């Protein structure tokens, strides 16, 4: 041991005497500032923003947005769970809640994403083509919907995303710029659910309001409030519109609510196809028989794809980095991002083109997704507005000549990591519409596929009259 102790100083001395050129030392300095990574939900103020007032406002609102997602470090919550030290939530029946009517201004929230000013923030939103990832914007919108909802209900209830009623891309974004995300509750009658309306726009100059021509995207989420202890729906404050514009928004929300109820009653799980739909299914089936009959000249066109050939799948383990404020469930915005990017890939694989996002059609969340579970997602082209049958569905053609609107349906389910028998649960169905610069037709073959086709066709009929996208003629710009 004594010999070793005498050797160590000589080795250390020899190491210290090694001459290292100053030029090489400089090259080891990779960065003089720490990159900020936020995975979409922006939570830090960038020091590059010069306006002190802007920075203060952005910091407060963006921190509020992130607070909707996480409040406790996961390791702390995990250890408390392991040691049975988690405090049970209080039921809303244990105290008096304020259910007086509220105005839309009470829940209004606005945040700025300084994407043009902060390249490190933009790094979290950019894709390989230099475009803004819409899936990451969808994450932010879901988080913002939660912030808005809790402003209306207060923290005494648990509020979850029940459905995304629509997300519509109104105009293309020609160049990367700062974005303003804003929203408020626009419909609530005092029951458990509320409609939260959001929009994404080019950020206006300080002191100015957003112009209509700068609105890029509009959205509507249905949020539901639950008792934290029993997980049963609870009443919330009704909404009281105060201005003619608010009355209009409230009536639109009421109309949307009634349309959803009517559509639910007519769902194919509850009602058989109507006569016109039954005739269409039969005609498609007869056409397929002709495709395989050597005695007929009819053959499947090259641009007609069997629905089964468009199916792609994704499997992910749900990690705590995407948990919600309740610590052990996955944030709904992460599901939106994941399903959108799978749907985008499905549309591009089927069309061999780069799709333009048009809308997220009515989509539902069914069961929560626990941290640690395995999420399975399956994307399928369920319908296109290029008719497979000659003369059929000509009135539904919404795309321009030489283009096709494609509906991609993404079904998701979860299993536990052990994949036990009977542990599969559906978590939601998400319906995306894209436009591609190619004529694409879809051919269902099985009864299940025919039902998917009819369901998507019904959705296309409802959406065609309400979606007006100016950008479909010019592409989606720098958002995809």
Mean pLDDT: 82
User: Shape from CA axes?
Assistant: globular
How far is the first residue's CA from the last residue's CA?
66 Å
Overall structural class, as computed from helix and strand content, comes to alpha+beta
Unreliable stretches, pLDDT < 50, 5 or more residues?
1-55, 467-474
CATH class of the largest domain: Alpha Beta
Major beta sheet, strand line-up: 1-3-4-5-2-8-11-10-9-7
DSSP, total strands: 12
The tally of domains stands at 2
CATH superfamily of the largest domain: Hotdog Thioesterase
Order of helices and strands: HHHHHEHHEEEEHHEEHEEEEEH
CATH topology of the largest domain: Thiol Ester Dehydrase, Chain A
Characterize the main sheet. Answer: 10 strands, antiparallel
Give me the CATH architecture of the largest domain, please. Roll
Enumerate how many helices there are, as a single number.
11
Bin the strand percentage: 15-25%
Helical content band: 25-40%
Protein name: HotDog ACOT-type domain-containing protein
Family: Belongs to the acyl coenzyme A hydrolase family.
Keywords: Hydrolase, Repeat, Transit peptide
GO molecular function: fatty acyl-CoA hydrolase activity
Write the layout of secondary structure elements.
Elements: H1 2-16, H2 22-27, H3 52-67, H4 74-82, H5 104-107, E1 109-113, H6 119-123, H7 134-153, E2 158-169, E3 179-187, E4 193-202, E5 215-226, H8 244-265, H9 275-292, E6 304-306, E7 312-317, H10 332-351, E8 356-365, E9 374-384, E10 404-415, E11 425-436, E12 441-443, H11 447-464
Parallel strand pairs: 6-12
Antiparallel strand pairs: 1-3, 2-5, 2-8, 3-4, 4-5, 7-9, 8-11, 9-10, 10-11
Helix pairs in contact: 3-7, 7-10
